[in-house]
Amino acid sequence: MTIQPVDPADVPAGGRSYAQGALVEGASRVLYISGQVPETADGHIPAGFADQCRLAWRNVCSVLAGADMTVANLAKVTVFLSDRKYREENARIRDEVLGDHRPALTVIVTDIWSEDWLLEIEAVAVA
Questions:
Q1: Rounded CA gap, 16 and 98, in Å?
Q2: Which fold has domain 2-126?
Q3: Closest by CA position to 46, among listed 122, 117, 110, 121
Q4: pLDDT of 85-127, one tens digit each?
Q5: How open is the CA angle 88-126-72, to the nearest 5 degrees?
Q6: Spans of all domains in the chain
Q7: What's residue 5's pLDDT?
Q8: Phi/psi at 23 (5° precision)
Q9: From edge to edge, which strands make up the β-sheet containing 119-126?
Q10: SS3 of 21, please?
Q11: Global pTM value
């Protein structure tokens, strides 16, 4: 199975940790990851954005691990931010988590279910 970034020359270039598209070939399993929020299993929610972002990504990684996958299996990621002021910090932490992997990505600024959550991350992974 391969996930290849797709960045046609006639659209704006993708970023450091995302591509305009992700071509999946040879996959036999698809994992749809529900929106992961910045909350621990016992209900703890960190106060700051960076800690919340890292926790939401840890939760994504836990779901991936439960399906014997890693961030390298991510084909599509959607991040919901509670405020556009978190855009740069979100991108920096996403870069830390994804490394060289570049899935398709959408970032949406919107209200989020709980006012305590500053973001939510959903994804699709393939293997």
A1: 10
A2: 60s Ribosomal Protein L30; Chain: A; (3.30.1330)
A3: 117
A4: 999 999 999 999 999 999 999 999 999 999 999 999 999 999 9
A5: 50
A6: 2-126
A7: 87
A8: -90, 120
A9: 30-36, 119-126, 74-81, 104-109
A10: strand
A11: 0.92
